[in-house]
Design brief:
Low-confidence stretches: 498-512
GO molecular function, one term: histidine ammonia-lyase activity
Mean pLDDT: 93
Number of helices: 19
Strand content: 5-15%
Radius of gyration: 26 Å
Number of strands: 11
CATH superfamily of the largest domain: Fumarase/aspartase (Central domain)
InterPro entries: Aromatic_Lyase, Fumarase/histidase_N, HutH, L-Aspartase-like, Phe/His_NH3-lyase_AS
Order of helices and strands: EHEHHEHHEEHEEHHHHHHHEEHHHHHEHE
CATH architecture of the largest domain: Up-down Bundle
Strand order of the largest sheet: 4-6-7
Enzyme class: lyase
Structural class: mainly alpha
Helix content: 40-55%
Shape: elongated
Distance between the termini: 24 Å
Protein name: Histidine ammonia-lyase
Number of domains: 2
Subcellular location: Cytoplasm
Length: about 500
């Protein structure tokens, strides 16, 4: 089981819960902190002093004092009124990540919820009772209020959940089936559940996991293209990359040499040409720069995953209660906007390699459009169109969400992050980019068959066999839509059987 402390959760551990169905439990000392924080809230609730979120209204209503007998109604009204998200639901995996991250924040012991609340969240996660959370409606400050309210509904027996078969059903029936009683929210608990960055961060973590895998896949896919075009391997030799000094660039070059080791198709300088086009020669520089962004994003996410992000926060056993702004999603908004650019570039350079594979003026004597009968059959001609369309769409989606802000709550909340929009757009770019790389893989598979698969490196031959088992060789024109979808699904399947050795300083990402 994975132990949640509020301070030590990693992306690797979260990945095991999300994709490996690992179970969780709360550290004992964290439960002690939760109890102490709750005792402080109970004391404040009985006092005369106005403390935001405990015995006051919210947002612009923060100056409205709430009578003691109405505190529970205040929390219930908060959840119901804020659960107004719209649009398609987040994927189950993202909603589960939201629950994990919200729970991890609560067990830090600064939020003032009861142990009962964290125990119920733990049960829901371990039993895969996942809330249905609409994707649209968050400004990214004051936290992800609307989507997290849909999460909180499940705890009170309202809202909807995904059942085991993936259908959307009322939450109450699923709770009853599992012997879980809904809770009645007490002072501050509703606010503690919704005032945070866990929606944008959950989407961001899933984005990071998918983007990391896509970046790894981009290397063997580009390697297959490199062999098909008889690329000049000198560009990957370590001297060039070491003198520039970026460890990620050096690591990509090292992995490319590993993928291509033993190839009879790669060439040396002046053997066929002096140098290749940038889309081949600059793979380490471009892909390496995207890895730099991934490293930046990972650092910010693992900070945010272990952060206390609600408001107010309770310190010194209730002696100090601070209304601050940790719910503001600007760090994650920036990280997601940066990730959008990095992943879009993996697709941009991939599409240029697709063009080189299908263009008879660039493809080293391969058939035009990789067609088995050029003219009568179009081959991969329109696949390049699709790739070009997707990279163009990415350029629109890559516009930073974080540069926008619209005031809310009667100008009390007058600057917001739009981080959740950024994380959603990043997910769209990752999906588009995966499809572009899927198209490159299909084209590279066909091109390598023309050049002679037996001449390829051992590792690339293994990948060729994997691709060819999903997408048959292009013997005649057919409906390629299903081929693209099938290989896309293969690339999308998250693999938890790889690990990173030594961190990104030497970036030895080993795939088994």
């Amino acid at each position: 089981m994975i132990e949640l402390t509020g301070d030590t959760l990693t992306i690797g551990e979260l990945k095991e819960v999300l994709y490996g169905d690992r179970k969780i439990h709360i550290a004992k000392n964290s439960l002690t902190r939760v109890e102490a924080s709750r005792a402080a809230v109970d004391k404040i609730a009985l006092g005369d002093e106005s403390v935001y979120g405990i015995n006051t209204g919210f947002g612009k209503f923060s100056n409205v004092k709430i009578a003691e007998e109405n505190v529970e109604t205040l929390q219930l009204n908060l959840i119901r009124s804020h659960a107004c998200g719209v649009g398609d639901p987040f994927p189950r995996i993202v909603a589960k990540a939201m629950m994990m991250l919200r729970l991890n924040a609560l067990v830090k012991g600064y939020s003032g919820v009861r142990v009962k609340v964290v125990e119920m969240l733990t049960k829901l996660i371990n039993r895969n009772i996942i809330p249905v959370v609409p994707q649209q409606g968050s400004l990214g400050a004051s936290g992800d209020l609307a989507p997290l309210a849909h999460l909180a509904l499940v705890l009170i027996g309202e809202g909807r959940v995904f059942n085991e078969s993936g259908d959307i059903v009322p939450a109450l029936g699923v709770l009853e089936k599992n012997g879980i009683k809904p809770i009645t929210l007490q002072a501050k608990e509703g606010l503690a559940l919704i005032n945070g960055t866990q929606t944008m961060t959950a989407m961001a973590v899933v984005n990071y996991i998918e983007a990391e895998q896509l970046a790894l896949d981009s290397e063997w896919i580009s390697g297959m293209t490199f062999e098909s075009l008889e690329g000049v391997i000198d560009a990957f030799l370590p001297e060039t990359h070491e003198v520039r000094g970026y460890p990620q660039q050096t690591a990509v070059a090292k992995r490319m040499l590993d993928w291509l080791q033993g190839s009879e198709l790669t060439t040396r300088q002046n053997e066929k040409r002096v140098q290749d086009a940038y889309s081949l020669r600059c793979i380490p520089q471009v892909h390496g720069a995207s890895w730099q962004v991934l490293d930046y994003v990972k650092e910010k996410l693992e900070i945010e995953m272990n952060a206390a992000t609600d408001n107010p926060l309770i310190f010194d056993n209730g002696k100090t209660v601070i209304s601050g702004g940790n719910f503001h999603g600007q760090p994650i908004a920036f990280a997601m906007d940066f990730l959008k650019i990095a992943v879009a570039e993996l697709a941009n350079i991939s599409e240029r390699r697709v063009e080189r594979l299908v263009n008879t003026q660039l493809n080293e004597d391969l058939p035009a459009f990789l067609s088995p009968e050029p003219g009568l059959q179009s081959g991969a001609m329109i696949m390049q169109y699709v790739a070009a369309s997707l990279v163009s769409e990415n350029k629109t989606l890559a516009h930073p969400a974080s540069v926008d802000s619209i005031p809310s709550s009667a100008n009390q909340e007058d600057h917001v992050s739009m981080g959740t929009i950024g994380s959603r757009h990043a997910a769209d770019i990752i999906q588009n980019s995966r499809r572009v790389l899927t198209i490159e893989a299909i084209c590279a598979m066909q091109a390598l068959e023309y050049k002679g698969v037996e001449k390829a490196s051992k590792k690339i031959r293994q990948k060729w066999n994997a691709v060819n088992s999903i997408v048959p060789s292009l013997k005649e024109d057919r409906i390629f839509h299903q081929d693209i979808d099938n290989l896309h699904d293969y690339l999308k399947e998250i693999k938890i059987d790889f690990h990173i050795q030594g961190g990104n300083e030497d970036a030895e990402r080993i795939i088994y």
